[in-house]
Amino acid sequence: MAMEQPKKVAGGAYGQFLAEKRPELQAECKGQPITAITKLASERFKALSEEEKAVYQEKFEAAKAKYDEKMEAFLANGGEKKARKSRKDKAVKKKKDPDAPKKPAGGAYGCFMAKNRPSFQEQCKGQPATAVSKLGSAKWKELSEKEKAVYEDEYKKKLEEYQEAKKSYVPPVQDDAEEPATKRRKVKEQKEAAKAAEAEAKAEAKKAGKAEATPKASPKGNPENVKLEAAIKAKAEKLGYKDSLVKLAARPEVIATGKSQGDLLKALEENRGRLHPAKRAILGA
Asked: Residue 63 gets which letter from DSSP?
């Protein structure tokens, strides 16, 4: 059976805090909108001390280390890593600049852990990753205020260096780093322009097609060019069909049949002088 791709750990320290406290928060926010849970969680997390936040950061790093191990095993067994789609993936994201100033995190406790982590890891060898954070927390509590002040000064110095570096930092120009709203507007404008161009092209094609498709009116012929035979003319005048006979005899399609004026007059007589029925009779329609 093929291995399932491990789920990537996300959310950082806050994600670990929220996962741990969710049942408790859900109970407190019972009957309220679901957004109340995340709002309360955010407030509670912000209220934590740097030391308490560092515990959850350690948990996140431990979970991430496990994920890396599982992913390595997954790939070693022939698995193929597939990107998991999310809302963030659909939005245009700015590329991170590796040269950008990095903000120090963890406060004084973070500086303390960074300095002593190798020693704590050695002491906790073979134990869960959370043991390192527990040991670090215990050791931090044992420090005097004077000893803690050293790390507080170190953090302040790092923070000042970061803020100074940020002042002179100029991010690189990124063509694909547009905000989602900007991209959506541009896509909309492009679609509207394409539709307008398409409509214009269709109108032009329709206009051209109509001009080509419109058949020329078939000529009715000029009755003035028709000269009736004397006997046929006299008979037609007597019946009152002279004008109809002249019009009928002038039609190109009737002329093409080769019918005589006598045949045309006969057709008129059979159709009581009506021009169109007589013409249909002659054309055999």
From this structure: H
Domains in the chain: boundaries: 1-81, 103-168, 223-283
Angle at 256 between CA 252 and CA 261, to 5 degrees: 85
Convert the pLDDT of each residue in 106-155 to its tens digit.
788 889 998 999 999 999 988 887 888 889 888 999 999 999 999 999 99
Domain 1-81 matches domain 103-168 at the CATH topology level: yes
Whether this prediction's pTM lies above 0.85 is answered by no
* 3-state DSSP assignment of residue 271: coil
Angle of helix 242-250 relative to helix 275-283, nearest 10 degrees, comes to 40
* Domain 103-168 part of CATH 1.10.30.10: yes
Helices (H), 126-218: 130-142, 145-168, 180-213
What is the DSSP secondary structure assignment for residue 172, as one 8-state letter?
P
Q: Alpha helix (H) ranges present in the chain? A: 12-28, 35-47, 50-76, 87-90, 107-123, 130-142, 145-168, 180-213, 230-239, 242-250, 252-255, 261-270, 275-283
CATH class of 1-81: mainly alpha
262 residue type, one letter: G
Count CB neighbours of 19 within 10 A: 14
Phi, psi dihedrals of residue 148, rounded to the nearest 5°: -65, -35
CB of 79 within 8 A of CB of 5?
yes
